[in-house]
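Posting this for the archive.
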Amino acid sequence: HPLLPRISHRPTNTNTARHNHTRTIGIHQSTIRTLTSQALKPNKQAMEAGGATAGVGAEKNSWPEVVGLSSEEAKKKIIQHKPDASVHVVPADSFVTMDYNTGRVRVFVDSNDKVTKAPRIG
């Protein structure tokens, strides 16, 4: 088409270019898949400890036992395990920032002030 710019350089073999592109993406995707599967593997020790990270003396990082409790009851239990935590009560359908803060625990509650999912550090 006369109005479109001419492409001055094209690969000599388009099949080779596609193959290299696919291979590069394949390596990248497999790396992501491997890292993701390792990160998502359930940690048996952590599950048995009720949300504590693996290791001896590790501090608790989630509170699944407070699901269904009121926000005040949940805050009390969280403060028992992590006295320095800044506990934020948030409506379950609210937008929140995605930053990770080790001093913050968000408690998501429904319209009846009941905890809807396990609060966790972050």
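The two ends are 55 Å apart (CA to CA). Residues 14-40 form the longest helix (27 residues).
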